[in-house]
Amino acid sequence: MWTKLVTSGISFYQKLIIRLEKKWADHHPPSFRNYVLFKKGTSATLVDINDLLRIWTRSALEGGGFSQLLPALSRRELYVLRQVPRDLLRLSPVLLLAPLPGTIFILPLFFAFPRLFLNRSFWTDEQRDRFDAEQLQFRQQVAARRVLASLHDAYSRLRLDPHTSAPMNQYLDLLHYVHEQILTGTYLSSECLMRLEPLFRDKLTLEKLSKTHVFSLCLLHDLPVRVRFSPFRQWPWLRTYLEPDYFHLRRVHMLRFRSRLLLAEDRIVDHELRDPGWVTSLSSSELKDLCSLRGIKTMHKSAEESTKELKRWISISLNISNSSHAYRLHLPVFLFNSCSD
């Protein structure tokens, strides 16, 4: 008896909601579209949170930290581990207000600033394409130039260092050559670029990069950074002297973890790319996400061209040392800023 009452009550409630939603859609389509986006976004976010909790639980039970767990994760789990913690921070105002009555009336505020308050699950397809294109353009035109400038500063500093060995000076000359070719938009072969790796395992490891260099790398890989002192924008070199070491060490840790995530995903994608059926079944949005993460432009390019550049990244990434984090993180500059589109 009670089961029937509960079932009929739930059924009545569902029908009532459907009827109210239909009336809402008929009388005020714009606000109803926001409501649908909010409902779908909330549902997708809850799924992501559940997946993240499952990964955290698995890591805690197995021990050893995330670094040892990464090779055993799927591509979906790597995405969750990379993106969801950042999304939760951005969504915190929405998640706190969502259970409260009357939240529906302030939804327009959130949707007026979707990039500030909402994550990808709440964006429309048009917003997602526009925001991704703008962010990738910033990474390739602004952040990449800062990284190149930092590389040139490191080259000049090491060249003047009397303790730099002769073999390292040869690698520095190669770095200078690569730097000049990138500035002129000249294509560089993978073999030429891979010859730089020993330099990044010795003199240019993440721990030895300047604060400005590390900050620029974070911008290049779209990692969360905050400019806590406004003069840093105009005079980045001030960061070396005025910014506390804690922020620098935290950024180094984020970059190292991003490199490990990229390596783990590269291994999965490399295995999947060997299956011709997987390549043809890969959706355009998935291919775009894989490329965008690595700084590869997909706009005005065919799927074959984007896949070719993705394969080039993976080939280099998997043929260098697993611990060459600094080199792997510079690949967007070496590979895709050397090719004029």
From TrEMBL:
Signal peptide: none annotated. The chain crosses the membrane at residues 94-118. Its main location: mitochondrion. It is found in: Mitochondrion inner membrane. It comes from the Eukaryota. The keyword Transmembrane helix applies. Keywords: Membrane, Mitochondrion, Mitochondrion inner membrane, Transmembrane, Transmembrane helix. It is a single-pass membrane protein. Residues 134-341 form the Letm1 RBD domain. PROSITE patterns: LETM1_RBD. GO terms for molecular function: ribosome binding. One of its GO terms (biological process) is intracellular monoatomic cation homeostasis. One of its GO terms (cellular component) is mitochondrial inner membrane. This is Letm1 RBD domain-containing protein.
